[in-house]
Amino acid sequence: MKRFVLDSVTSVTYRLKDPELIREFLLRLGTMLSAKNCTSLLVSEIGDAAEGYSSSGVAEAITDGVIVTGNLERRGDLLRTLQVVKMRGTSHSRAKYVLDLTTEGVLLVPLLKGGSVSGGA
């Protein structure tokens, strides 16, 4: 299986001001990669007050999945977070998780609504 990572879509499409041109570029890129049986990961930057999940607002509409990572401050600690917003063709949790990179690998711990982390992490 082949893999392709574009980090970031925001940088590559910076000069394309028309969302329709961005959509066309991403559709062509996706079609080409899919024809080569290639799994692709497209990284997009969003601001804190973003209304969509990509800077252009079109990428999330044509992708199979959207995973949002971020930072959250709780009691003086800065926590990395991960949330699967969209994953076409499968049921999944939409809960937000604390993402911890450890020497053993990636650890995901559910973030409780009150802001604390379950499991004592």
Report on the architecture of this protein.
The chain has 121 residues and is of the alpha+beta class. It has two domains: 63 residues, no CATH class; 57 residues, no CATH class. Helices cover 21% and strands 38% of the residues. It is built from three helices and six strands, in the order E-H-H-E-H-E-E-E-E. A hairpin with an 8-residue loop joins strand 4 and strand 5. The longest helix is centred in the N-terminal third of the chain and has 17 residues. The chain is globular, with a radius of gyration of 16 Å. The model has no long low-confidence stretch (mean pLDDT 84).
Structure in a nutshell:
This protein is an alpha+beta fold and 121 residues long.
- How would a crystallographer describe the biggest sheet? 4 strands, antiparallel
Give the SSE string: EHHEHEEEE
H/I helix tally = 3
The proportion of strand residues reads 35-45%
The level of helicity is 10-25%
Structural class: alpha+beta
For the CA atoms, what is the radius of gyration?
A: 16 Å
Main sheet strand line-up: 3-4-5-6
Distance between the termini: 35 Å
- Total number of beta strands: 6
Please state the average pLDDT score. Answer: 84
